[in-house]
Design brief:
The complex is a heterodimer of chains A (about 425) and B (about 160).
Chain A (H helix, E strand, L loop, with lengths): L17 H21 L7 H13 L5 H30 L2 H13 L3 H38 L5 H13 L9 H10 L3 H26 L1 H5 L15 H20 L4 H17 L5 H7 L2 H29 L6 H17 L2 H12 L4 H13 L8 H11 L8 H29 L1
Chain B lengths: L1 E5 L5 H11 L5 E8 L2 H12 L10 H24 L4 E6 L2 H8 L5 E5 L14 H9 L4 E4 L21
Parallel strand pairs in B: 1-2, 1-4, 2-3, 4-5
The chains are: A mainly alpha (about 425), B alpha/beta (about 160).
């Protein structure tokens, strides 16, 4: 995955004039996002996204060349993502997340603050290495069960999982799809990306921890019963060794200039083949773990967003986006990225901002990442998507309490984002 | 006599023991557990944030609801065993403090445990939910300590005498 040449901002030959093409592209994008949130009839997100991308190409809102270029750019990213998803899925099959629950229970011994600390440590590590999907889908239920079993109130700990799935996804290119996209655009090596993001990652997690200790002080001070001896966790050695080797593979491949996606693929294959041999998986379940419809969705979304960018958004945002790589510029870029992620969603936000910031160098790209990764702690999926989701998907339930989530986000997002940007700026000066 | 014991993770054994020692043998005992909807809601929201992942069956919020239901059932089962006399389990879902007050309608006694910070004895030894229930309970309330009650030495020294005028 090498650096990409700066793109021209307009397609050359197109059938539609710019305002019409831009309107069409925006309508397509909104439709794709709305469909992805609502999922009518339970159909996959790609069912609308792929035809929408086809319409964008057919109508000339994006030239065939640009669409092909976008697909060629996103292809390797999507492959990398599939490998990481499979890796996380089979870590679960190997019992890694069950073991996490047992470790947390033993270490915390029924003390809520210790359990919070354990959740912070494990959720940060799992998000960084196995991506945010793993933390939300696989770790959150384990954390809840652990809290319930040891008599600790689960609220702060479940909130910690959701917040860290965003905030702790800064460290590695594999931690978040947004990172994979930025990684491809930035031209950084895997190790340099990690080195530059290490300090912002730690600072952001530390800020979240302080906010959580204060915000949930009551829950964390609440009664807990005398600890019952927790069962001894079975060590999922094979999964741990495979993940460690995959991480080493990332470093090694980037040192010799090979795409680190191959290391992820190798790790995923090792675990998948082991599961197949031990009859814990079928070829179908391996394919399902790679989430093919999600991959198609990402490709199609990329093309639709590119049409929106090409037809005028690039010019409009170009005026707002601060230039340069000084601290004020980085703060401005990160804030704009956070706002955009909260208005639409962080996935389209990063697709929009990357081509605009990539020419300014890796500092600007990483600042975009800080904004789009930490920002979603304010509105889950972006405010439009969250409104749709709440009104349509969960309209019959009273459980989705956006007030508390938003109050926590209003404290945590600025508290994590500003120091993280300063830390990034510092890392850029030193490294 | 109809006795309701509100059981919460962590502190429930004290409530059950209080029912055993304080309620007459012939009481009609109800063991109540209320699951709040907020925590699964947080997980639902986080999954919605993963745009495009599909597979609604992987939504962790649903698993949290199931897990919450299972752990509530286990808690009530363990409580019934500890009580050792006939009782009725009652599982409710909703705003915890309001559900407890509603469930206590028509009861002769509501048993609950302190749910706050007991490191510093004082107003904070009641959390918001217990505070609400104590304030709004439609019947007499028996408020128990989750562990042995503190002895008299934990009482703060009396305030200094007011100056004579």
């Amino acid at each position: 995955m090498d650096g990409r040449a700066p793109r021209t901002s307009r397609p050359e030959d197109r059938a539609l004039n710019t305002p019409l093409a831009e309107s069409l592209s925006v309508v397509l994008l909104v439709a794709v996002l709305a469909w992805a949130v609502v999922r009518p009839f339970g159909w996959p997100e790609a069912v609308l996204a792929v035809p929408a991308a086809a319409v964008a190409v057919a109508s000339g809102a994006i030239s065939l060349d640009h669409a092909r270029e976008e697909a060629a750019r996103l292809g390797p990213v999507v492959g990398f993502l599939a490998a990481v998803l499979v890796l996380a899925h089979f870590c679960d099959v190997e019992g890694l997340f069950r073991a996490c629950g047992a470790w947390m229970a033993r270490w915390a011994g029924g003390r809520p603050v210790r359990l919070l600390t354990a959740v912070f440590a494990l959720a940060s590590a799992i998000t960084a290495v196995l991506s945010l999907d793993a933390t939300i889908v696989l770790l959150t239920p384990v954390v809840f069960a652990t809290a319930a079993r040891t008599g600790v109130r689960p609220r702060p700990h479940v909130y910690a999982c959701t917040h860290l799935s965003n905030t702790a996804s800064l460290l590695l290119p594999v931690s978040n799809l947004t990172n994979l996209l930025a990684f491809a655009a930035s031209g950084l090596s895997f190790t340099r990306f990690a080195a530059l993001m290490a300090l912002p990652w730690l600072v952001a997690i530390g800020a979240e921890y302080l906010v959580f200790r204060r915000f949930f002080a009551r829950d964390l001070a609440a009664a807990a019963p005398p600890a019952t001896p927790a069962e001894r966790p079975e060590l999922p050695l094979f999964a741990l060794v495979t993940v460690a080797c995959t991480l080493a593979g990332f470093v090694l491949t980037s040192a010799v200039g090979v795409d680190p996606a191959w290391a992820a693929l190798a790790g995923a294959l090792v675990l998948a083949v082991r599961a197949l041999v031990r009859r814990r998986a079928t070829p179908m379940s391996v394919v399902r773990a790679a989430a093919p419809s999600f991959l198609a969705f990402v490709l199609a979304l990329g093309i639709v967003v590119r049409a929106v960018v090409d037809n005028g958004l690039a010019d409009a945002l170009g005026h707002v986006l601060p230039g340069g790589s000084g601290l004020p510029a980085l703060l401005g870029i990160a804030a704009l990225a956070a706002v955009l992620a909260n208005l639409i969603n962080n996935l389209p936000a990063v697709l929009v901002l990357l081509p605009l910031t990539a020419p300014a160098g890796p500092g600007a790209v990483l600042a975009v990442l800080l904004g789009v990764n930490i920002g979603p702690n304010l509105t889950y999926a972006g405010s439009l998507a969250t409104l749709l989701w709440r009104r349509i998907v969960h309209q019959h339930e009273h459980g989705v309490d956006l007030k508390e989530f938003t109050r926590l986000g209003l404290l945590a997002v600025p508290a994590a984002l500003v120091p993280a940007v300063v830390a990034l700026w510092g890392s850029l000066q030193v490294l | 006599m109809r006795v309701i014991a509100w059981l919460v993770e962590g502190t429930w054994p004290a409530c059950v023991d209080a029912v055993r020692t304080q309620a007459p043998q012939a009481s009609d005992v109800v063991l109540l557990h209320v699951s709040g909807p907020e925590v699964p809601g947080v997980a639902h929201g986080a999954f919605a944030g993963l745009l495009g992942r599909g597979h609604p069956e992987r939504d962790p919020g649903d698993r949290l609801e199931d897990l919450g239901g299972t752990s509530a059932a286990q808690l009530l089962e363990a409580a019934a065993a500890r009580l050792g006399r006939p009782s009725t389990p009652l599982e409710r879902t909703g705003r915890v403090e309001r559900e407890v007050v509603a469930a206590a309608e028509g009861a002769d006694l509501l048993v609950l445990a302190r749910d706050g910070d007991r490191a510093r004895l004082g107003p904070h030894s009641l959390g918001p939910a217990a505070r609400f229930v104590v304030d709004h309970a439609p019947c007499p309330v028996l408020l128990v300590w989750p562990e042995a009650a503190p002895d008299l030495t934990t009482m703060p020294p009396p305030p200094p005498h007011p100056p004579h005028h």
